[in-house]
Amino acid sequence: MRIGRDVVTLCLSFIYAVSMKQLVLVVFLCWLSCPALDAQGPDRKPRRTLAEEEIPGTPAYEKLGEFEVADSLLAPNVLLFCGQQVNLDPMNRQRKLRRELASLSRFTPVLMERAEIFFPIVEPILEEHGVPDDFKYLMAVESGMNPEARSPAGALGLWQFMRETAKEYGLNVSRKIDERLDVEKSTHAACCYLLDAHSKFRDWVAVAQSYNIGQNRIGTELKRQKVDEAIDLELVEETNRYIYRLMAIKIIFTHPENFGLKEVRYKKLRRR
Questions:
Q1: 225-253 pLDDT, tens per residue?
Q2: In the predicted model, what is the mean pLDDT of residues 38-63?
Q3: Contacting residues for 51 by C-beta, under 8 A, at least 6 apart
Q4: Distance from first CA to last CA of the chain, Å, rounded?
């Protein structure tokens, strides 16, 4: 009888050991299969594959830093963004801005053609909501002013709204209709988002950053990093460059002659 009990005990021990190993293996495989939690929140767009000239450390990237920009464009080292002064005295800021000017200048002719179509529609809506006119350039950074642009993550339209964010700000997004593709309605929704962010941060630079990475993340990083200016936040590479791209687009559009471009001409529309 004792031998029988010993055999039973041994068998149970073996089964328990195998079960535990299987359990550990299952848990491990589940962990591997789960996607990493996105620290940037639901509005965070995946990083796109960068061209060599946009990858820090490559020869092409360093060459962009040699792009010549008339000093008068950046003098007296202060740029106005949404009526807010951005100090360009720190050399790292000016270097980043020059690099974005070099990177974007290749694509600007197409953007300027599209601006003739969309600026007359968007500008009166921004004015109606009391949103600074400079945010019309955000469309260029977000979608290249392509009203049908779609990101791999599902952001859509001129303002690249994610589905849930679009619904939150009053857009109808369903199988039959998607108002993210409606230029006027999506612009109204973007204005509401920007004003909502400004009510939290009271800083238009932080507002612009939040459009790329989400309001919650910017709020968290402002508290954690305790920087004097939002432009100095250490964020993911895409967002670190985002505000400089926005300022670079403004410089190119307001000083086209310095980049061999013609001034954008269009008839401004009045809202009824």
A1: 999 899 999 998 888 899 999 999 999 99
A2: 43
A3: 60
A4: 98
Say how far apart CA 141 and CA 138 lie, in whole Å.
Answer: 5
Residue 81: phi and psi, rounded to 5, are -125, 115
As a whole number of angstroms, the distance between CA 225 and CA 202 comes to 17
Which pair of tokens denotes residue 4?
């029988």
CB within 8 Å of 268: residues ≥ 6 apart:
120, 123, 124
Pairing state between β 84-87 and 78-81 = antiparallel
Cite the DSSP H helix spans in the chain.
2-33, 59-64, 71-74, 91-104, 108-129, 138-143, 163-168, 183-201, 204-213, 215-225, 237-254
**CA 221, CA 265: separation in Å to the nearest integer?**
40
Question: What confidence score (pLDDT) does residue 76 get?
Answer: 54
For residues 207 and 197, give the distance between their C-alpha atoms in angstroms, rounded to a whole number. 6
Measured between alpha carbons, how far is 33 from 29 in angstroms, rounded to an integer?
6
Q: How far is CA 111 from the centre of its chain?
A: 18
Give one DSSP letter per residue of 70-100, joined into a string: -HHHHTTSEEEETTEEEE--SHHHHHHHHHH
Q: Which residue has the tokens 């009203």?
A: 147
The model's pLDDT over 130-172, given as tens digits with 9 standing for 90+, comes to: 999 999 999 999 999 999 999 999 999 999 999 999 999 999 9
Taking the mean position of all CA atoms in its chain, how far away is CA 80? 20
